[in-house]
Amino acid sequence: MREYFIEHIRTALKTAGIATEKDIQIEKPADNKFGDFSTNIALVLAKECRKNPRQLSQEITEQLSFKPGTVRKTEIAGPGFINFYLEPAFIMQLLEQAITEGDGFGHSLVGQDKTAIVEYVSANPTGPLTIGRGRGGVLGDCIANILEAQGYTVTREYYFNDAGRQMTILAESVRFRYLELCGEVIDFPETHYQGSYIKVIAEKLFEKQGKALLKTDDLAPFKQTAETYIFTHIKSTLHRLDITHDSYFNEHKLYLPDESDKSPNRQVIDLLREKGYIDEYDGATWFTTSKLGQEKDKVLVKSSGEPSYRLPDIAYHITKFKRGFSEIVNIFGADHIDEYPDIIEALKILGYDTDRIRVAINQFVTTTVNGETVKMSTRKGNADLLDDLIDDVGADATRLFFIMRSKDSHLNFDVELAKKQSKDNPVFYLQYAHARICSLLRMAEQEAGFTLPAEGMQLMRKMTSDHEIRLGFMLLEFPEVIDVCGRFLEPQKMVEYLHGVAELYHRFYQECPILKAEPDIRTARLFLSVATRQVLRNGFRILGISAPESM
To answer: How far apart are CA 340 and CA 334, in angstroms?
Structure first.
């Protein structure tokens, strides 16, 4: 709809002899008494046109020409706003598109012929997935769905952190538990992974190897067994939330020489050194970010010889550029908030187009049960596990609760609320609206013979009540909501929108008789219900939740 008005305003400006490259903003007024849409273009152009904004609004309005039956009236308000009021029949005519396009309604060609990579979850394979990791997983999956709805060819990728100190600690943890099974007395370090899953891995290794590894100092079999077991478990947990990845990138590849006989990590250091951004002191290798105005340099290789997280992350992102992705989207936890700007700076120094990179940082999650906060610690083995949450509240509630707040906000996951079968539970409220429509359509088939596909969609243009028009108008916003979600990487906005749709539908259902209405209005209201169901379904598909037909 906004494009419709932008096109007509540009034509009016041209006719009025006003040439401008400035964007034309079309907004939806907070109060519908100021119209269905509004523009401030006269205020924006008044200075360069050397005219009073209201006078300029009048000149623009005089040149506006809309097809009969579309715009009911145009009105100048305040200091120079131009407000537009649509014909109710036009709103309902446009809504027919939601029904005819079906599952494709709301999709666009913004990303046509473009590729996008979305990296998400990327949890270290050192233990089962915690609730905190689940939030990033659902956020990334929803963003991937949004980009696909915009026409992008999307690759969902998991960065498999199978290198570094934490993997050594994991292998040692399993080895200690294995030695205990062999009869050794072990003083298990507090710094190592103490969860029961470590004992399970050790038992599996002991069943297969017996005491054959008792005297070995080689951590490889312990690391490999743990990696395989934990990552299989991680993928199984993600599958329960309908999260799958197209590719997995192993971090250890960045430590191995390629055709240049240098590892990607080493190449990053050499290239940054050539640009004058590497220094060696205190036994470590530093990225001299102080030259970029930062207070301190950032370590890339520690004095122990172990890379910091920044180095392989820079090398990994270079592989994304080399693979030719148009959009590079990263879903990071709040613990990366200080790190990723340095990665962007390094890539910029090395000549990469960092405008193609977008980062979504999701804040931490706490869970409450009966008002009590559950504390998490993977290392101590008392983590709040994602599998346990799914067992408790179900996959749909888990997904929706993770994204119903802005990614920038700390999330308090209320387990008891997520289990409620009432309108207080957001997922129940949304799914109940869909189920209510399905129930209505089943009754309409039995009582009035209304089956899809049905004739008479154009009868929606006869509807004029406020409840009908407000609902229809909101359904038309669905394509724009997808666009906004994509621009801001905010699936939360889809949750808010669908909640608004459900609320308006429930009100319409209560105030407007459907099956008892006279035949034409009954058919019209049934088609409005069909359009609502389609929008809910399409939105649920983006959020990754089910659309039950009965509850």
So the answer is: 10
Query: How far apart, in whole angstroms, are the C-alpha atoms of residue 455 and residue 419?
Result: 41
CA distance 463 to 460: 6
Residue 263 above 80 pLDDT? Answer: yes
Give all strands of the β-sheet with 284-287 in edge-to-edge order: 278-281, 284-287, 298-301
Give the residue from 2, 1, 15 showing the smallest Cα distance to 60.
Answer: 15
Sign of the C-alpha dihedral computed for residues 427, 429, 430 and 432 taken in this order: positive
pLDDT at 375: 60
DSSP character at residue 23? P
Q: Residues 386, 237: contact at Cβ < 8 Å?
A: yes
**Torsion (CA) 181, 182, 186, 191 in degrees, nearest 10:** -60
Contact by Cβ (8 Å): 120, 156: yes
The candidate with the shortest Cα–Cα distance to 72, out of 42, 36, 40, 25, is: 36
Alpha-carbon distance of 129 to 122, in angstroms, equals 10
Region class of 106: left (phi > 0), else alpha (psi between -120 and 50), else beta:
left
Quote the CA–CA distance of 372 and 21 in Å, as a whole number. 56
Tell me the three state secondary structure of residue 514.
coil
CA nearest neighbour of 103 among 549, 539, 547, 545: 539
Which residues are 502's β-sheet partners? none
Helix, strand, coil percentages (3-state) for the chain, rounded to 5, are: 55, 15, 35
Diameter of the chain measured on Cα atoms: 92
At residue 336, the pLDDT reads: 85
The pairing of strands 298-301 and 284-287 is: antiparallel
* Count of Cβ atoms closer than 10 Å to residue 312 Cβ: 24
Strand order in the sheet with 26-27: 26-27, 37-39, 81-86, 71-77
- Yes or no: say if 207 and 183 are a contact pair by the CB < 8 Å rule: no
Q: Which two tokens stand for residue 489?
A: 């990487």
DSSP string computed for 99-133? HHHGGGTT--STTTT-EEEEE-----TTSSPBHHH
Element (H, E) at 26: strand 26-27
DSSP 40-78: -HHHHHHHHHTS-HHHHHHHHHHH----TTTEEEEEEET
Q: Measured between alpha carbons, how far apart are the two ends of the chain, in Å?
A: 35
Of 354, 256, 255, 248, the closest CA to residue 311 belongs to: 255
What number is the average pLDDT over the span 193-205? 94
Tens digits of residue pLDDT in 47-96 = 889 899 999 999 999 999 999 999 999 999 999 999 999 999 999 999 99
List the structure tokens of 35. Answer: 């119209």
Compute φ and ψ for 341, nearest 5 degrees: -60, -35
Mean pLDDT of the chain: 93
**Residue pLDDT, tens place only, 330-389:** 999 988 888 999 999 999 999 999 999 999 999 988 887 777 776 654 444 445 889 999
SS3 491: coil
